[in-house]
Amino acid sequence: MPRGRKGSPQESVDSILLAISRREDIDPDTMSHYLDRLDEEWAEGAREKVLHLLRSNDALAQAAALRILSELATDFDLEGLEDFVTDPTVSDLAKLSLSPILKELGSELADDGIIEYLNDPAGAIRQMQMRLLELVGQNEMGVETILEDVVSMPVERRFAFINWLGNSNDPRAANLLVPLLENQTGKVVMAVIDALEQLGPIAINQTIPALNYVIATSSNRQLKQQARTVLGRLTMQSMLGSEDAAMMEARQQQYPPYQARVSSIDGSGTQLIMLSWRRPDGLIKGVNVLYQDQKGIKDCYGLDEMDAEQWDNLVEDLDEQGFSSFTVSFEYARAVIMEARALNKRTRTKLPIAYSIWRPLTEAGLRDKKALVNLPATCLEPLELNSETIALARRANDLYRLKEFASWLYEPIERIEPFISRYWTAQNVFSSSTNGRRKSKLKVQEERSLLEELVSSALDELIDDKWRATYATRLLRQAALLQQVGQAESVPVLRATAALLAPDSHVALHEQVFPNTLLHVSIEQGPLRLMVESLRSGSLSSFPVEFFQQD
């Protein structure tokens, strides 16, 4: 879509294109200013000048042109871009580089459609593949970008790409192959192991640790056997002592920690873990891991070449999005990640491909059981269930005064929805039958009685042993976090509440403050909660609008 205007910049299109093509230190505000100016002149010649840059043999100019096109090109430009692809005088590499933009615009020429318009298809694809290897040799972000596309390929194309990597005779190919050992089907992993053997000793510094990891963690006997066989052959092909050198180099390729942050656990059991490291050039490399306590690592994305101010801005942005976080020790943050990683394995939930790329950094030095045992506790023990604990748990309603519990409502929402509907439908009835601005004491009492009746029914119908175990564990994990960040005053209440909530507790649910408070809040805040869920799903069709209707 065309960009919004911010004043009338006076720079010429030519000077802007020259600056973008030659400078790598353009700040975001200036770049936005430049793009606004190009957008103003887009149909009056700016687009043609950008395409002229793409025709050049200058890599920086081509990269600038692609950056501008990805920002400014719209459906109105599609015909011109397709004409560019079909022009026999345009270089093959320039045509191929347009593929992502054409795909975004829905062109039939995207991907395979471009091939028939190439002057030398085989040579062009080889050039593009070599550019890919240049990209993955720079940092994890390049690997992440490429592998996101690779894992979405049809299986046959994925096999062909893996085979090409194995025959590339380029050690950088291992950067793409190694992450595919962790989250693909058995047949794909077999192909990756074969490709790593094809690369031979040139990539042994990555291959040996990766194959050792497969042997140590895989439950597939056939894969473990193939990994052992290939590892043996690679070791024999290599110089004496190369395995020790490879393992040592793998350990040395670490960065000093910069900062670790962890968000509190929200009402759905989701938590964000942020790890960052200081690069040799002083900039920051980082990774964000999203952990959901029923599945494990749910999402992951990396960051690189950030300065301290950009990192702080990222933390502030996430805080505004509801992921407020605490600074914690690196050991605690990594302990939470390892807990999530173990849950992926238990639940057989596939890891995001990005996590496989960043695993060497996030799990460095944690392969042996002794290192794992020495990590801080991520979940505290409940208190012994006695009269003192029961008395302490009566203060559980105080937890809802903490911002860390603001989102703690009943999950899953669809199970409590009928109770919310009954309460708010009755609210409309009470309001329509009330004369004057103030409700009578009788009406207020009727509302309270209805709410208590609904909460009592919900306690019996909605809370089972599985739910109790899930929320008791969340309370204990939240307690461990608050203890880590120096907010220990609420920890005894959390541990006491978890002791009562545990499935083997003899204290009746109706006598426990925490589940009663949680259901009260969930039912009373039901309409807002349902609206948020409906907006999140992109549809308001299921939202009971009559909650807000007044007669």
TrEMBL record:
Top-level taxon in the UniProt lineage: Bacteria
Name of the protein: HEAT repeat domain-containing protein
